[in-house]
Amino acid sequence: MVDGSANEKTVLTLSHWPKSGTPRELKADTSAEIAFKYLDSSQFHIPVDLVTNNHFDQDGLVSVFALTEPDMANHYRALLIDVASAGDFGVFQTREAARINFAVSSLADPETSPLSSHVFTLPYPEMAAELYIRLLELMPRLIAEPNNFKSLWETEDARLISSERLVETGAVTLEEQPELDFAVVRVPESLSSDRVHRFTSSQNSACHPLAIYNRTPRTRILLIQGQRIEFQYRYEGWVQLASRRPAPRVDLSILTDELNSEEKSGGLWKFDGVAEITPRLYLADARESSIPADLIREKVVRHLRSSPPAWDPYD
């Protein structure tokens, strides 16, 4: 099992998922890196014919590809690990990795995929299996010649470049509090939202999340766009990282009650819960909050400082 949790037939798990039981010597930030470390470590090799995953995304695809096509995967190891990082964490070293990540997202998105629409009507396990079958076949060409797949990545790449310029020019600002593993991102109120991808799912965002995540390692992010305010825990806090330990997630349910007691917009503050992969604290059923943004920031900071840890992914 790569990049997922063990099932009843699993004999070895190679995954950064919570409590995965992956051998300590093989642990790494991405499951793709774990898969490559397994290939390098003959003492962990086992006589098994099958590799699987319980979901489809970039890190899972690279991990399966590494174990099923090890020679080619090793040749492109650095690029493939970068693709997995872009997919899972929104952090990348090379433009090629970001573009391959976008291409995979486009192929897995029913609104943009050139694959048969029938694939996306299947139950999720069968759909994921079809995506693996079809994309594993494409991977050698995709990683060797990503420019041949420009139609799959060029639109989102342009959106990322535009967002990167906003950050570089200071139109979008990042203010960090390293001791809290916290960053405040302020986005101009006039910016409209575009359709972008995180993992292989689409969302609307005024500033591409990869432009933000690639600029700050902070895993607790407060996004402020006028009176549109949202707090996010990044994916790094859900999995077992080997290179560092993000600040543990705290439960913000109490904060939602506090905010709802003061909210006058007609909306309702909600928190997804610490066990979600990228949980949000957000206002539903209203476009803007009536509570001043800086006051919400103060409340978030207070809860991050004082609340006990509520999530521990580590073995």
What is this structure's SSE topology?
Elements: H1 31-40, H2 58-68, H3 70-75, H4 77-89, H5 95-108, H6 124-144, H7 150-169, E1 173-177, E2 182-186, E3 194-198, E4 201-205, H8 209-213, E5 220-225, E6 228-233, H9 253-262, E7 268-271, E8 280-284, H10 293-306
Parallel strand pairs: 2-5
Antiparallel strand pairs: 1-2, 3-4, 5-6, 6-8, 7-8
Helix pairs in contact: 1-2, 1-4, 2-4, 4-5, 5-6, 5-7
What does this structure look like?
This protein is 39% helix and 13% strand. It has 315 residues and is of the alpha+beta class. It has two domains: 129 residues, no CATH class; 151 residues. A six-stranded mixed beta sheet has the order 1-2-5-6-8-7. Strands 3-4 form a two-stranded antiparallel sheet. Strand 1 and strand 2 form a beta hairpin. The two termini are 17 Å apart.
